Amino acid sequence: MKITANIITLNEEKNIAEVIKSVQEVCDEVLVVDSFSSDKTCEIAESMGAKVIKQEYLGDGGQKAFGAPLAKYDWVLSIDADERLDVNALESIKSLDLENSKYDAYSFARKTFVGKNFIKLWYPDRVTRLYNRQVCAYTTEGGHAKVDTQNIKDLEADMLHYSYENYSHMIKTSHKFITRGARLAYEDGKRASCIDPFIHGIGALFKTLVLKGGAFHGVNGWNVAVISAFSSYMKYALLIELEENDK
Q1: What are the Cα distances from residue 177, in Å, to 95, 148, 181, 235?
Q2: What is the dihedral of CA 196, 233, 10, 152, to 10 degrees?
Q3: What whole-number distance in Å separates Cα of residue 113 and Cα of residue 106?
Q4: Which among 66, 126, 182, 184 would be 20 to 30 A from 86, CA to CA?
Q5: Side-chain half-sphere of 232: how many Cα atoms within 13 Å?
Q6: Is residue 15 helix, strand or coil?
Q7: What are the contacts of 60-64 at 24+ separation with CB within 8 A?
Q8: Cβ proximity of 186 and 137 under 8 Å
Q9: How far apart are CA 91 and CA 215, in angstroms?
Q10: Residue 174 to residue 232: CA distance in whole angstroms
């Protein structure tokens, strides 16, 4: 059973070649849905045999859902430009009998890195990425995109996620997620009191350091805990600000 890789991009010239190489061993088509990159993302992708479709950004789920009907094959592997298939993931996909599969989709464990540092406390961070578009699809609402099905098989396989170049990059990127998270929460009708930033900030710190064991993961565990706590605090601080600005 053949597979189409679906990759969404925006100015990913540093990553696009490696992710395409990563999937070509198991995918018979590579589809890139690009949000009008201003760098060489599209040229590199096309030079490697990928089919490039340009589409204004519809949100993470919306963009991934947009690409699925354009795929040549029914089984779609959705992978981000900063992700790669580990060797065990390649072997797992090769071993699947997709034509006779009783599952709608398959999930991978995801290993996330900050620079060269593997953040163990985030593992396994299950993500459903290989799915049959005839029976399920990506959700197009909200901030967290996912394949909408319960009939999922968890593979003992890893997807490598090179999310942040370093901790400075992680801090800069967190600003985008804080702002988007606060806006989505406000649009969903959620409101915050003056103590919510403190409660959620301290809660995030406790969860990461104690419940997830980040305190025992060295400096990486502490770095992630502090950044997570700050992000949670600021999300609710911005939520309060949005409410005050609308009054």
Answers
A1: 37, 22, 6, 9
A2: -60
A3: 22
A4: 66
A5: 19
A6: coil
A7: 60/8, 60/143, 60/144, 60/145, 61/138, 61/139, 61/140, 61/141, 61/142, 61/144, 61/145, 61/146, 62/138, 62/140, 62/145, 63/8, 63/33, 63/35, 64/6, 64/8, 64/33, 64/138, 64/145
A8: no
A9: 34
A10: 10
Q: What is the pLDDT of residue 246?
A: 81
Total-model pTM: 0.87
Give the helix, strand, coil percentages of the chain, each rounded to 5: 45, 25, 30
Question: Is residue 59 classed exposed, middle or buried when 0-12, 13-18 and 19+ CB atoms within 10 A define those classes?
Answer: middle
Mean pLDDT for the chain overall? 95
CA distance 185 to 191: 8
Q: For residue 124, say if its preceding peptide bond is cis, omega within 30 degrees of 0.
A: yes
